[in-house]
Design a protein that fits this description.
By secondary structure, this protein is mainly alpha-helical. The protein has four domains: 52 residues; 113 residues; 107 residues; 69 residues. Helices cover 77% and strands 1% of the residues. The chain is built from 16 helices and two strands. Strands 1-2 form a two-stranded antiparallel sheet. α13 packs antiparallel against α14 and α14 packs antiparallel against α15. The radius of gyration is 37 Å and the shape is extended.
């Protein structure tokens, strides 16, 4: 195959890619006109911009290939004929006039917009890449000094394998040995704090009326039985809270990844249609900075390839094994299987994005129904119940039955009760909301 056939083949593939990109642009523009969701419109617009960039790049490749193809032989330049010497004055007459020189200089002067562009380019600062080095915190260093030997023996016995898996999936930057040392060190501090609290409550009472702190009047033995639970509950609660923290963090990250995944899958389906290297899809998603939690997982895949030297399929399988989200793990595994079997990547991403988007809509509908139920409960608890309770307290005050509170006390109780219930409902809805 000669060079001309090679360039023609490249030109043909570039034109076919350009057709696919134009087709994708047309489908996205139609989707924006039909869709009512602002979030999905924003995602579609970002994808249109990326497709325009790839279309521009493809057009440049086409023009470069066209320049390399010659269907005719270039003309041979003739040697200039010898010219007889002419007087110096005649030569000066034949050259361009001063008027033309001034006109040429005027044509080369930049316009106003060009001057503004030059100023912006000069003002634009160069971005310097700074390497960040994270030093270990003093708390972790102290914990390692005190308990590293015990932690190392526990890790070697593989007694806490679930904790190790949760640390990796939760993206906590601690080794299992360091984290176990932190658990033991924090539990030791909580034991000391529990002893101080126990000694305080052994001799003093804490009340709501002035004076707030009073001395204990009962015997030491009776008081010891009442406050002995502090020595057990505080250290045990601290240990369990730190031990289960990676698991809770993993669930939180899984929820946030599942919220970003349907829209990222739509982007990946559109990008894969341009027939680029599958690993480049992750680089493009990371560069958009629209999916912060997914970007961390995609960065792991890129690091597996660039740093550890794995191939793309092996990197996907490792990332699927260490992913906190089950849905993302299934996406990685399905992508690895599709690449191994030579399947159609655009079709794979398209079908997976439809499934994920359908599940996302179902979750939003569940949240809407739950919000309606909470609204009914809120109306009955916050509006109806305080009014009925206030009427009962006023009737009890007038009739002299049971507890009789003053009007200011009843008002204060109602205000405090409504405030506490509102805080509870707002917190609960914030925890359950879908972003």
């Amino acid at each position: 195959m000669n060079d001309k056939e090679k360039y023609l083949k490249e030109l043909k593939s570039n034109i076919s890619k350009q057709k696919k990109i134009v087709k994708e642009l047309n489908s996205f523009s139609n989707y924006i006109q039909k869709s009512d969701d602002e979030k999905e419109k924003k995602i579609a617009l970002s994808q249109i911009n990326s497709l325009k960039q790839s279309l521009r790049k493809n057009s440049e490749e086409i023009s470069a290939n066209l320049k390399k193809i010659y269907f005719t032989k270039p003309l041979v330049e003739k040697q200039p004929e010898k010219i007889q010497a002419t007087p110096k004055k005649e030569v000066q007459k034949k050259t361009s006039s001063p008027v033309k020189k001034e006109k040429l200089k005027g044509d080369l002067k930049p316009e106003i917009l060009e001057k503004e562009t030059i100023k912006r380019i000069k003002k634009k600062e160069k971005k310097e890449i700074v390497e960040k080095k994270k030093k270990p915190k003093w708390y972790a260093k102290t914990a390692n000094k005190l308990f590293s030997k015990i932690s190392f023996s526990v890790v070697n016995k593989k007694a806490l394998q679930t904790l190790e898996r949760d640390l990796i999936k939760a993206n906590l930057q601690y080794t299992p040995t360091t984290y176990i040392s932190l658990i033991l060190f924090t539990t030791l501090i909580s034991i000391l704090a529990a002893i101080l609290l126990f000694l305080f409550f052994l001799f003093f009472n804490f009340g709501v009326e002035l004076p707030i702190i009073t001395r204990v009047t009962e015997s030491i033995g009776a008081r010891f039985l009442k406050v002995f639970w502090i020595l057990l509950v505080v250290p045990l609660g601290t240990f369990l809270m730190i031990y289960f923290y990676p698991s809770m963090e993993k669930k939180s990250i899984e929820h946030k990844i599942n919220l970003e995944l349907p829209f990222a899958a739509i982007n990946m389906a559109a990008i894969s249609g341009s027939m680029i290297d599958p690993s480049k899809i992750f680089n493009i998603i990371i560069s958009t900075k629209e999916y912060p939690y997914l970007s961390k997982e995609f960065t792991k895949v890129i690091n597996e390839i660039n740093i550890y030297g794995y191939n793309f399929v092996s990197a996907l399988r490792n990332a699927a094994f260490n992913s906190p989200s089950k849905k993302l793990s299934e996406l990685f595994s399905g992508l690895a299987t599709t690449i191994n079997s030579g399947g159609d990547l655009p079709e794979f991403f398209d079908e997976r994005s439809k499934t994920l988007l359908f599940e996302h809509k179902l979750e939003r509908e569940k949240y809407t129904k739950a919000a309606e139920t909470f609204m009914d409960i809120y109306i009955s608890v916050v509006i109806a119940a305080p009014m009925i309770l206030m009427l009962l307290l006023m009737m009890m005050k007038v009739s002299g039955l049971g507890l009789s509170f003053s009007t200011s006390t009843i008002t204060l109780l109602m205000v405090l009760g409504v405030t506490v219930i509102n805080i509870f409902f707002i917190t609960f809805l914030h925890m359950k909301k879908t972003e």
